[in-house]
Structures are given as C-alpha cells and as structure tokens.
C-alpha cells in the first residue's frame, strides 16, 4: 500500500525556497492510523502463523497503539488484551475516548499502577500475565519490534528518492528505523522525539541506542527542542500552530506527534536550517484519534481547544 505525497503550501516555504511534502499515512486506514498500520502488519502475520488467538500489549490512556491494536484484533478475529498504565483509570475509563473505542472493539483491559507497568519487559511479569490470560502473542509497548520496523520499511517508495531530507516523528523510534533502512544512504533522515530528552541526557542516549538496534544505516539523527515538555504535553502555542496549519493547508495534525514535528520543521525553515532548493518529505504518521482526548484535557484546564 502506498500513500500519496501532498505538497504543503505556506508563505514561509516559498520565501525560503524550500519545498515540503507530507506523506499522508494518516489516510491509510480509517481506524488503524498511519504508522500503527505499518507496525501491525507483520506482527499480525506472525501471530497467525504462530497459531496464536490472542494479542497482548501495553499502553497509556491515549495511546494510538492501543486503539489500533484493538481494531486490528477485531478485524483479524484475535482476542486483544491491553495492559494500561494507571490504576486510577479503572474507575473512569469509559470517559476516555481511546479506551472506550478499544473496548468497543473487544479489547479487555488490565489497569496497573505505574510502578508495575514499568515491568513491561520483565520475564516474571510476562509469565504472570500468561497465567492470568493464557498464551498470547506479545506486542511490545508502542509496537516496536523487528516485524514493526519491517512494516515501516514499506512507507517509502522509489519515487521518494528525489527528496534530500526525510522527517519522521519519534516515540520508540521504530518508524524512524524503518524509514532510515529504506532511505538512500545520502538522504538525511531527521527524527523529532515527542518525549522529553534534553534535560535528562541519559534518556536520549537510551533512545539513540534503541534506534540503533533496528537502524542499519548512519543516515539519521534526532532533532531536540520540539518535545514541548514531553509525551502528550502540549502548550497553547502548539495548539495555535496546529489550528492555523489546518486552516492554511487543510491538513489536520495530531497534538502528540505530527503537530510537534511540523512545528519543528517550520521553525527550522525559518532559521535557515535547510539550503534553498531543498525538498523535504515528512511522514504524517496519523494519530488523529487522540484529538478528542486531548481536547477533554484542554477543556478541563480552560485552555484553547484543537479545531476538529
Ligand atoms: C505511535 C506514533 C508515533 C511513534 O512511532 P514510533 O515508531 O514509536 O517512534 C509517531 N506518530 C504517530 C502519529 C504515532 O501514533
């Protein structure tokens, strides 16, 4: 499956003579958005080939991966179990749009406190989960494994070789690794982490190491400074940027990943980080299901909302 590249037309891009295209992976599937579709593809095949009837995975309350896994499980007649971070959600998950959607698609939840959630890769913990739920195909948090990276290697197609710069959002970095692997060695692959890193250098080093496990080329690097305080953190400046980007280009962005990346790209264009004549392709990795949940949070804080 190939998604189309849409040119972004903004005065600042014309002024700096930089062309920017967005690969509309957000339009791949109505419910399994963007890179989650790519990351699930070979995992679903592996689960079916292994004879599993259950998928088990991990995520937070607004996780695109949780929503996507629930829907994909339903479509492929696999039972899905979500280990959800935050015990307190047990009382109120029905008011959370992501969890409600996942439940409507058959996902069974286990809510765990944050300190227990941290054991998500621990052998003993996984063994205990097997005793509780029976055998399952394990999708790691964020869906990042070899099969996921293999799927993300299919995002680019041969025509994309004409771009000098490729940009990807970064959570676990699985998507970035896939892009890097299928990019040309001379293309520059930039990753925009949506999680906090700067003030805690070790966290960023861990991310770099994780990506290196899957990325075979040296053509990529991480760009700091556009995480807006960390995962699912948002400011009024970012909300305004996402709203005006949509008004001016017609393209919706999500508040957790793609909004931060596009903010970063436009800021870098403004600061002359790209040579005149540069052609940039940024991957719109989806995530639009998260807008409703984010607006609930913004409303509670009496802050400006994202346009829908
Ligand atoms: C999950 C997600 C990402 C992060 O992908 P990784 O492969 O974990 O880095 C980026 N963008 C969107 C929209 C996502 O939902």
UniProtKB/TrEMBL annotation:
Annotated protein name in UniProt? 1-aminocyclopropane-1-carboxylate deaminase/D-cysteine desulfhydrase
Query: Which InterPro entries does this entry report, sorted A to Z?
Result: ACCD_DCysDesulf, TrpB-like_PALP, TrpB-like_PALP_sf
Q: Which UniProt keywords apply?
A: Pyridoxal phosphate
Give the family per the record: Belongs to the ACC deaminase/D-cysteine desulfhydrase family.
Which residues carry out catalysis? 63 (nucleophile)
Identify the cofactor(s). pyridoxal 5'-phosphate
Matching PANTHER family, A to Z? 1-AMINOCYCLOPROPANE-1-CARBOXYLATE DEAMINASE-RELATED
| Modified sites of kind N6-(pyridoxal phosphate)lysine | 36
**Which stretches make up the Tryptophan synthase beta chain-like PALP domain?**
12-286
